[in-house]
Amino acid sequence: MKHSIQSKRYKVVHVTTELSKYCIGGIGTVLDSLYENRNQDELFVFVHPDGMQKNFYEFDDDVIVMSISEFLDIHNPLPFEADTVYVHNYNLFEMHRFDKSTKLIYVIHSLIPVEMTFVNTYGDREEKNFWKAVNIADELVVVSNSEKSTLEKIMGNVGYSPKKITVIYNGVSQQEIIKKDYNMKNGVIGYIGRLDYRKGVFQSVKEWKDIEDFKLILACGGVGSFPPYYSNKLSNTIESYAKNKVFPIGLVSNERKKDFFRKVDALIVPSLYEPFGMTVVEGIVNGLPILATRYGGVKEILGKDYPLYFDPCKKGDLKRVIALYKSMSSIEIRKLVERNIERVSLFSEEIMISKYRGET
To answer: What CATH topology corresponds to 188-347?
Structure first.
């Protein structure tokens, strides 16, 4: 519901660096869902990098657009007041800029696991900004119980006192559950998501040299748009291990995304680390069987007894699970998909929106 910005106190404000077409991955999907279903008493603030002009960004007139410096400048009064402010990026914390009645919540969409330090992965500045956000926020939100356990462990290791940590699962619209014909296979397995070392894409491409009968389509938000290192590494890995078997098609969205889900037989989620697993839920809602790792939030979606788990770091395990999937009858695949559809009712858009509004 579109509404104009008013000089008033809002019930909920979301502050984000990803919204609408200026996003990629699960964070953008979540923020777009919250934005498209906003109420009159909800406001969205889009914060862009310094050096970019505001008029570069195209939004409806009910989104406040600010640069990072503008948002963090304590001498620059913010153009809104709120009961609850959700900040979706750890680089947007400098101090608690709101009155005592405002609850400031840091939403941690992706938490680096304990064995991967911020220093080695993102640099010392990013590590400091993360802990600054944790320290300043009144409460923390994570996207799975797995992330909550990891965060509690990290905070304990570095001596931070416990804070209230709430789990709000990401949600996907389930108004239309797609029914597929499992009697026909196109010989295509698909991956959709970031081109990122944590997503297990490179390991899967290497393993694909031993896969017969199935092509792998990579709808990567990264080919041609992420740092050249990842794109070049992917091209070289395909050339060395799986030429004519693996095909990157770049980022897909909207109708292209729907077309992608229609054309693949199954979805592969080979993540080495997965805070939630938005693509798992999207694949299920689109009627696809899922070949997945059991890391992070994925196990909370698919359950402990799911038969098509594999270990992307164990040589031959991907080949094993694809052979198992290939051996399944259309009836067995349909039952598996129906079982998954029952489970994803917990991860609906409606439940997620209600929790962010503080209604449940």
So the answer is: Rossmann fold (3.40.50)
